[in-house]
TrEMBL record:
EC number: 2.7.1.24
Protein name: Dephospho-CoA kinase
Residues that coordinate or bind ATP: G13, S14, G15, K16, S17, A18
Gene giving rise to this polypeptide: coaE
Pfam family, one: CoaE
PROSITE patterns: DPCK (PS51219)
Keywords: ATP-binding, Coenzyme A biosynthesis, Cytoplasm, Kinase, Nucleotide-binding, Transferase
Length: 202
């Protein structure tokens, strides 16, 4: 039987990666949209050439890889440039994700994506799990993890869907406001529940 697809999302610093990792240790096939986003701009792929045509050599590192920091700076300053980049990359990322999900052999597979709702990737899934965290914890965790300023984290939070929007699309919400062990217990409980579902539905 073909596995059904669970979409896993959450804002920056919510702990969605830690949750995804734990699902993975339980034997669930995992596709990370961020990884797909990196693959489509590898040197030699058509998307990277188009990005350089548009933004110039300044968005490349000396070894020919994409300089994400430089590109991020350019698109955060301009809504139009951000939209152009999304129009280029979203379809390619979608194809990469679909191909990878098709290789799944676990009872269900997980698509992890910070922009699951905003990018329309939730349409590839049968069920959506949101890892939700109070905003003060998101700020604290991200600043600690990435050594960035509160202003930078707030800008990213603003670009991502509001918590309310995300939760509106959720079938399940995992509240991650405790320690890692608490998170793992909730993942295991959901995993048992998901094993009993057919096509993502009870």
């Amino acid at each position: 039987m073909k596995p059904w697809i669970l979409g896993l999302t959450g804002g920056i610093g919510s702990g969605k990666s830690a949750a995804a990792e734990h699902f993975s240790t339980l034997g669930i096939h995992m596709v990370d949209a961020d990884h797909a986003a990196r693959w489509v701009v590898e040197p030699g792929r058509p998307a990277l050439a188009k990005i350089v045509d548009r933004f110039g050599e300044g968005v490349l590192l000396p070894d020919g890889q994409l300089n994400r920091g430089a590109l991020r700076e350019r698109i955060f300053q301009s809504e139009d440039e951000r939209r152009w980049l999304e129009r280029l990359l979203h379809p390619l990322i979608g194809e990469e994700i679909v191909a990878n999900l098709a290789r799944a052999e676990s009872p269900y597979a997980i698509l992890v994506s910070p922009l699951l709702v905003e990018s329309g990737q939730h349409r590839l899934t049968q069920r959506v799990l949101v890892v939700d965290t109070p905003e003060h914890l998101q700020l604290e965790r991200t600043m600690r993890r990435d050594s960035v300023s509160e202003g930078q984290v707030r800008a990213i939070l603003k670009a991502q869907a509001a918590r309310e929007d995300r939760i509106k699309h959720a079938h399940d919400v995992l509240l991650n406001d405790g320690d890692l062990e608490h998170l793992h217990q909730q993942v295991e409980r959901l995993h048992q529940f998901y094993l009993g579902l057919r096509g993502g539905q009870p």
